[in-house]
Amino acid sequence: MITDSPRVGSSVSAVLGAALIWSSSFAVTKVALAEIPPMTLGALRFAPAAAVLGVAVHTGPDRCRLPSPRQRLAIGAAGLLGITAYFALENVGVDLATASDATLIVAAYPILTLVLSGRAAFSHARLTGMLVAVAGVWLVVQGQPGGSHSLWGDLFLIAGGVVWAAYNILARRDGSGASPIVVTYYQTLAGAGGFVLLSLSEMDRWSVPSGGNVLRIGFLAGLCSVAAFLLYNHGLRGLEPSVAVNLLNVVPVAGLVWAVVLAGETLTITQVLGGAVVIAGVTVGLHRKNSGGLRRTGGHHEPAQ
Question: Taking the model in full, what pTM does it have?
């Protein structure tokens, strides 16, 4: 018997919404990094995002239901992992590696999360779905023409996957009872503070960003860092980490669509086939066998962009 939980459905929709927003961030970040150093880009992205979220939290209905100082520290610790540490590694990795490398490595993040989650998050159907999704992304990458390879960039991206998996596990243990926007605010505030400190090491490379990069920073801050993180944190509450990461395997597929629509690129038959395989893997990964039968669940956590 297959049953659908309204909470699970809402969580899946929220994560997929975040994935669609994040799917364009690799390309936007890659272009911006040509002018802005990695840690500085992180600070310029997350500091405005923290300010926007702070205004919303302290002027809205949640201002009377803020977490305790101890709970804020726990939320902030998750923010240092999921924002400062992860995006620092991602920015450096994207700067050094090719888009194809990044796409393939990001697709392997569900496996990392499954391993770190322990046996409690394991099921044969879920593991099969993840492996199928990874195979699909491999086909997508194989269908892309050319490109240089950077071992160091790949290593940074792999390290980012480990950090992101740890963030998902830590964030899901949040017991503050705070709303998604409050949790996102304190995570972003801590992450922005970490990036501001790291960016000081790049002062000799600072310059006034071009108009195009101001728009890119605004996109990364407003949509990728505020809207998408709110959706993702909402979805995380109803999904297990390993399932959440698996859903985010649609990011590289959606990224190809953005490349066609925004950059006028063309897709190969191999890429189209790979995209279909990814979707199939994600669908399989949303099912888990229980003693009472088979029920659909939602769960995923992948790299936010």
Answer: 0.74
Domain ranges, residue 101: 6-296
How many structural domains does the chain have? Answer: 1
Angle at alpha carbon of residue 173, lines to 171 and 175, rounded to 5°: 110
Mean per-residue pLDDT over the chain, rounded? 79
Tens-place pLDDT, residues 26-68 = 778 888 999 999 999 999 999 999 999 999 999 988 888 899 9
Residue 303 lies inside a defined structural domain of this protein: no
Q: What are phi and psi of 60, to 5 degrees?
A: -100, -175
Residue 179 lies in a domain: yes
Express each pLDDT in 79-121 by its tens digit: 999 999 999 998 998 888 766 666 667 766 766 676 666 645 5
For 4-13, what is each residue's pLDDT tens digit? 566 777 888 8
Q: Are 253 and 279 in contact (CB under 8 A)?
A: yes
**Residue 83 within any structural domain of the chain:** yes
Alpha carbon separation from 278 to 159, 253, 255 (Å, rounded):
23, 8, 13
Residue 85 placed within a domain: yes
Q: What token pair was written down for 148? A: 């240089």
For 72, phi and psi rounded to 5 degrees?
-65, -35
